[in-house]
Amino acid sequence: MKTVVSVIGKDAVGIIAKVSNICSECNANILDITQSVLQDMFVMVMLTEIKELNCTFAEFSDKMKALGKENNLDIRVMHEDIFNSMHRI
Amino acid sequence: MINIHDIMETINMISEENLDIRTITMGISLLDCCDSNPEKACEKIYNKITRLAGNLVKTGEDIEKEFGIPIINKRISVTPIAMIVASSGGDPVMYAKTLQKAADATGVNFIGGYSALVHKGFSAGDEALIRSIPRALSETTNVCSSVNIGSTKAGINMDAVKLMGQIVRETAEITADRECIGCAKLVVFCNAVEDNPFMAGAFHGVGEPDCVIHVGVSGPGVVQAAIKKHPNATLGELAEIIKRTAFKITRMGQLVGNEASKRLGVPFGIVDLSLAPTPAVGDSVAHILEEMGLECCGIHGTTAALAMLNDAVKKGGVMASSYVGGLSGAFIPVTEDAGMIDAARSGDLTLQKLEAMTAVCSVGLDMIAIPGETPAEVISAIIADEAAIGMVNSKTTAVRVIPAIGKVKGEELDFGGLLGSGPIMDVNLNKLPTKFIDRAGRIPAPMQSLKN
Q1: Interchain CB contact of A43 with B (< 8 Å)
Q2: How high is the pLDDT of residue B1?
């Protein structure tokens, strides 16, 4: 299953490194990364394959959320299907 | 990979515009729980509900976590209990308590189906159940009740209308110490639907499968935000924008419904395409109408704006889901909608205007606090008026009014949570419809041709 990790917040040094670090810790494979600045906000979107995760999905998601809290960022992990179903017919 | 703007749009809808799945509702048939011994029947009911819905809440929470979309309520609807009382007998309240016990065991927010369908007349069990509603709603907290008193094909059962006026009043009186909350869990329908996932009117119709999953979406905030971005659009363009937004919201409902159905091993029923408001700011149907250009919800122009909104939501949603059903439309529950509450407080939104609005949207006079002194026959007359609109227009209409015992116009009721709070609205009590209601009998089914 693929998930979309989205990071929204103020731009700072090392955001991608920190997020990738958790991916690596949990054995989530990063398939694609896009980043952009939208309305003065730093936005990074990462597509990850999590079928070989070494922890549960909930733990992976909670770790990301905690990282977001520490760094004042909004980090979400969401199943890619939600975006596919909403934006593709 | 999916476009970053699309991803941001979805995230924005959830985090800023209150997009959520209002409810996953599991419909369960209790027809096979009948027994010659009522206690045995209750035991079967409890066992069947807890067996089928044991994982409902957990599954809902798992989906919520994985997809990152809030699922506000998990609910159960069951076969109208009057049918079970008819064959198994016993005190109907015992069944209400069994439903409450099952709701506690499964952890759901509401369980609906303490219901009777009497649009043409009372059969065994119906009257006993209706008369027990005040007690049942007073002695339980999560059980919801509904009674269908009319339909386009059968006309309006005015005996039931008369009785329901008394029952609504009694329910308010018996729960007067709790803001008359019993009435917030009691709906009187005309043309009730069998697959409604929304409370308080959900029940599991007899034409439904043994067990089924329905989903109700929400999203007034998303529609409002979309309209806000186009301040100079014509109404035709606005309808297009609403359709597109409704499509996206409904796709999400379909996804969650499919996923829940797969994980629970239960067939998928319908998506209810409704704009269901909450008392939270940014989650209001009234604010959509105001964003469309009305200075306040309830003024002249409100019915036209609501008609367009309701129609565009349906048009957008229908293509997004494989099965659409339930009540599908914009809800206008006064105490559950921040904009409606304000409009009722300022006096711009009246009961008369609300009645007109119900002719063009889902569902009816919903969550309206009326003066405590309102006599039963006036409540019956309010129900009859609303049922007539539903009967003639072949649509579902309903009445959920709360007589605020001991309070007068201008004071407020506060239920808390999704049920919200609101001012007591003005009802004409100067002259009474007593003679009309006392005539009882049936209003014959209306003509379906020669429409004028």
Answers
A1: yes
A2: 62
Residue A1 has pLDDT above 70, yes or no: yes
Q: Identify the residue whose tokens are 């960022």.
A: A73
Contact call for residues B51 and B106 (beta carbons, < 8 A): no
* Contact assignment for B1 to A34 by CB distance below 8 Å: yes
C-beta of residue B259 within 8 angstroms of C-beta of residue B63 = yes
pLDDT-derived band at B119 (thresholds 50, 70, 90) equals very high
Show the domains of chain A with their CATH numbers.
2-87 (3.30.70.260)
To the nearest whole Å, the CA of A51 is away from the closest chain B CA by 13
Residue-wise pLDDT tens digits, B16-30: 888 899 999 999 999
Under DSSP, the state recorded for B177 is G
In chain B the domains, ranked by start, together with CATH numbers, are 26-190 (3.20.70.20), 215-440 (3.20.70.20)
Give chain B positions within 8 Å (CB) of A85.
251-252, 254-255
Handedness of CA B88, B94, B99, B101 (dihedral sign): negative
**DSSP string for residues in B118-137:** -SS---TTHHHHHHHHHHHH
Q: Whole-model pTM?
A: 0.92
Contact between B78 and B111 (Cβ < 8 Å): yes
Is it the case that residue B331 has pLDDT exceeding 80? yes
